[in-house]
Design a protein that fits this description.
The chain has helices spanning 7-17, 35-51, 64-73, 88-112, 116-123, 128-135, 153-168, 195-209, 220-229, 251-261, 287-309, 328-338, 354-362, 372-380, 392-400, 415-427, 429-459, 463-471, 473-485; strands at 23-27, 56-61, 77-80, 138-141, 173-178, 214-217, 236-238, 269-273, 312-315, 345-347, 366-369, 385-389, 407-409. The protein has 486 residues and is of the alpha/beta class. The strands form two sheets. The chain has a seven-stranded parallel sheet, sandwiched between helices. Strands 10-9-8-11-12-13 form a six-stranded parallel sheet, sandwiched between helices. The relative contact order is 0.12.
Length: 486
């Protein structure tokens, strides 16, 4: 499905928008350690720039030291909200302080009647994050799955604080291409669900998400979660993950990578994204038991790929921090050290860009991924994929791509079934690639609709969206289906 805008359409669109330098702020994401998070921001920025030429972008970064160079590369202003990797609980404390400052500001301005500019300069503008919030025309929460219970109580409260700050400051805020819910919160360090914490987070989610400008859900399971939560005041649209539109490295860059890693199209290649942190995200057993179990599964996969398929394996590190507990290169190295097939395994330990990783994944005959955005890179390159996951986001996105039968949840699958599926995927890779070729254009079009809907919120009228719907049939059909789905 063609979602491209013609030169004439872009020219007309620019006249509709005018020459204002709209300021757009990304929150909840990063450009460095998590390549999936970086892919979301890079692709979202590119889509928005097609609709809003001249827009200025900034990111409120929780990994400022790591994101600094990359923000310059992508022409995104960096605003530091403090580093989460050094003091995660202090990070929540700082956000609670920011929210308290805004509440005090509103009380003084609207209850007592003190002049707002003077109060703002004291309470808000001496904090670089709040100042950037106040000066932004649109704020985009782009964590991908930050609004779930998968990453613990501390993480979800930080996400709520970021969004609530925008609401209090009366900024337009969009939850952009997300998987949301179901907010099953574990007791810290115990691995069992806390009904009290879960209920509290569901209450906060209902209260906060009913006050945002727009929610775009990247899969249907999120739509149901939002319905169960009682989200009815905010507009909701079914779209797709922004990273489906991330470009891969060009031919010259790929050729350099192939030379560096001694890769060839003549050999059978199987890509694997092993997750260092997937173990601690499960509920049903201790971290140690999970770790051993996951390593056993991956070891079985390695053996089958080498022995049965005669293929070479590429370990693709899609998350490299923060901290050792989130560095996929550690898991890959351990699997390599314990394998007797070292001569058939390529470890990539370099810090590659999302575009470079996507290009390497595109070389593979099949892909086995424990990182969702590594899987999205494979799917968008039409590479047959098996997803080993822990969250509904995995099932929802794979189903949209037409590969729901190749999703395996770590809590509930049989290893022999996985091996049979792996064999089927490899033997029928050509047919499955054709399925992806048929289904992916629709997902890519839905991905671009995130930017269209965001633009509509930014301009606060329907002139831009009416123009796009009337001049591009692909966009019209996608928006129509998105609205019908919700």
């Amino acid at each position: 499905m063609d979602i491209a805008l013609s030169a004439q359409q872009v020219c007309i669109l620019s006249k509709i928008i005018g020459v204002n330098m709209y300021k757009i702020l990304f929150i909840g994401g990063n450009l460095s350690h998590n390549k999936g998070g970086a892919a979301l921001i890079i692709s979202a920025k590119a889509s928005l720039l097609r609709l809003i030429p001249g827009a200025q972008f900034a990111i409120s970064s929780f990994l400022p030291d790591s994101d600094e160079i990359l923000s310059l590369k992508h022409n995104i202003e960096l605003v530091s909200e403090g580093s989460i990797k050094e003091k995660p609980y202090l990070h929540l404390f700082f956000w609670l302080i920011r929210v308290t400052r805004i509440l005090l500001y509103k009380m003084l301005c609207y209850t007592i009647g003190i002049r707002s500019m003077w109060v703002a300069s004291i309470l808000l503008d001496n904090d670089s994050v709040l100042k950037k919030y106040r000066n932004s025309d649109l704020i985009i929460e782009i964590s991908g799955d930050g609004l779930t219970g998968d990453y613990g109580f501390n993480s979800i409260l930080i996400s709520f604080c970021r969004i609530y700050a925008a609401i209090l400051l009366r900024r337009k805020i969009i939850i952009y291409a997300q998987s949301i819910g179901p907010f099953r919160i574990k007791y810290p360090l115990l691995g069992k669900e806390s009904k009290v914490l879960s209920y509290f987070c569901k209450y906060l989610a209902k209260w906060i998400l009913n006050s945002v400008s727009l929610i775009t859900a990247r899969e249907k399971i999120t739509l149901n979660n939002l319905k169960v939560l009682g989200i009815s005041n905010s507009p909701i649209c079914l779209t797709s993950d922004s990273a489906f539109l991330l470009p891969s490295s060009n031919k010259e860059e790929l050729s350099n990578l192939m030379s560096k890693y001694d890769l060839s199209y003549k050999e059978a290649l199987v890509g694997i994204s092993a997750s260092q942190s997937i173990n601690k995200l499960k509920y049903n057993s201790s971290f140690g038991e999970n770790y051993i179990n996951y390593k056993e599964i991956m070891s079985r996969i390695i053996e089958k790929v080498v022995v049965d398929f005669g293929a070479r394996i590429i370990f693709v590190p899609h998350v490299i921090g923060p901290g050792n507990e989130n560095d996929d290169r550690i898991m890959s190295s351990e699997l390599y050290k314990e394998s007797k097939y070292k001569d058939k395994i390529l470890l990539i330990n370099d810090d590659l860009s999302p575009e470079e990783l996507k290009a390497l994944i595109g070389m593979c005959d099949i892909f086995i991924g424990s990182r969702m955005h590594a899987n999205i890179a494979a799917l968008s390159m039409r590479v047959p994929t098996i997803a080993i996951g822990y969250s509904h986001k995995t099932k929802g996105i794979m189903k949209a791509a037409g590969l729901e039968e190749f999703v395996y949840n770590l809590n509930e699958f049989d290893i022999n079934e996985l091996m049979n599926a792996l064999d089927y995927l490899y033997r029928n890779k050509q047919g499955i690639s054709e399925i992806l070729e048929h289904n992916l254009p629709s997902l890519e079009s839905k991905s671009f609709c995130n930017a269209i809907l965001a633009s509509n919120i930014l301009f606060d009228n329907y002139q831009i969206i009416d123009f796009l719907l009337n001049n591009n049939k692909a966009i019209y059909n996608t928006i129509k289906k998105s609205k019908e789905a919700t």
